[in-house]
Amino acid sequence: MKRVEAILLKLVVIQFIFLIIAQSLILYTPLSPYLGKIDEYEGISKQEKTKTIETIIDR
Questions:
Q1: Which of 26, 30, 40, 53 lies most in the core, judged by the most C-beta atoms within 10 Å?
Q2: Whole-structure pTM over 0.70, yes or no?
């Protein structure tokens, strides 16, 4: 069981390191304008108001 826990801990540490690297690439490099297009594909950057429909719930 300790071996599995050690492997999982190593995987978590590696994931954290890759997260920090990816975040620094997006925020602090000249590549950020090209990587920022991902937000457009996902629809995050658009600040459009959506129409909402109010409904009445029967009590």
A1: 26
A2: no
Buried b (16+ CB within 10 A) or exposed e, 31-46: eeeeeeeeeeeeeeee
Q: How does pLDDT run across 26-45, given as a tens digit for each residue?
A: 787 777 667 666 666 666 65
Sequential DSSP letters for 3-47: HHHHHHHHHHHHHHHHHHHHHHHHHHSTTHHHHTHHHHHHT-S--
- Every domain of the chain and the residues it spans: 2-42
Tokens at residue 55, please? 């409904």
26: tokens are 């997006």
Cα three-residue angle 48-50-51, rounded to 5 degrees: 145
Which pair of tokens denotes residue 53?
């429909």
